[in-house]
Amino acid sequence: MLKNTTNSYGWIAIVIHWLSALMVIGLFALGYWMLTLGYYDSWYRLGPWWHKSFGITLLALTVIRLLWKFFNATPKPLGTHFDQVGARVGHALIYALLLVTMVSGYLISTADGRGISVFDWFEIPALITSIPQQEDIAGAVHWYTALALVILAAGHALAALKHHFVNKDSTLTRMLVAKRNQSNND
Ligand code: HEM
Ligand code: HEM
């Protein structure tokens, strides 16, 4: 029940999905709120510290998620041919936006040559610092991709709810609980 089968999600994919969803929403809200803070605000330094620490955690989780996906079955999307193509394209876009948002966040943070402290536990070094106007360009990319990501994720959540309440299929429930599968037991 840890692994996926061709028609059900296992616990590993389910737990990573919901942890990622929470972190994406939290990071967006925190990032947006950070913009409103002034220099003398006590959260002026603390906000980015949490944002970057969780951002790097999400990046690591997403790499593990993609490796897991690569070595595992992906359940076939349910519904019409249109639904299935939409789900595949939509999920691929979400993964791409996640990666570009996180890499651009890394490039903003390390543009001045300083590494990123992750929960004051260890530091990620600055590897690329030579892109012209790196902080500004990465900052613009970060904002637009983060915005596109949350809009797409909201559409994605609506699609899941439509499957549940209108089509009445198992799309949503199979992302909530792992079920033992008849055709593929593991
Ligand atoms: C920021 C929030 C979210 C992100 C980034 C996200 C991302 C993803 C991704 C990448 C997949 C594809 C998994 C795979 O590789 O097979 C997926 C699947 C899924 N997500 Fe989300 N998700 C988010 C929020 C939500 C919410 C709020 C819901 C429910 C209301 C939801 C319901 C589902 C369901 C049901 C699937 C399985 C789809 C299927 O079986 O075809 N997600 N999600
Ligand atoms: C999916 C994950 C992420 C989301 C949704 C997200 C979202 C946001 C948002 C909405 C902002 C405010 C708007 C802006 O100035 O761009 C922001 C700012 C920022 N983010 Fe992220 N972020 C994510 C991951 C990361 C990561 C991994 C890092 C670095 C390790 C990071 C570093 C930053 C920095 C340094 C800022 C301040 C930028 C500035 O003041 O111009 N973010 N983020």
From TrEMBL:
Stretches that traverse the bilayer: 12-34, 49-68, 89-108, 141-161
Keyword Nucleotide-binding found: no
Domain of life, source organism: Bacteria
Major localization class: membrane
Domain Cytochrome b561 bacterial/Ni-hydrogenase: 9-176
Keywords, in A-Z order: Cell membrane, Electron transport, Heme, Iron, Membrane, Metal-binding, Transmembrane, Transmembrane helix, Transport
Localization: Cell membrane
GO cellular component, one term: plasma membrane
Alphabetized InterPro entries for the sequence: Cyt_b561_bac/Ni-Hgenase (IPR011577), Cytochrome_b561_oxidase (IPR052168), Di-haem_cyt_TM (IPR016174)
Pfam families (alphabetical): Ni_hydr_CYTB
Cofactors demanded by this protein: heme b
Bilayer topology annotation: Multi-pass membrane protein
Similarity field: Belongs to the cytochrome b561 family.
Name under which the protein is recorded: Cytochrome b
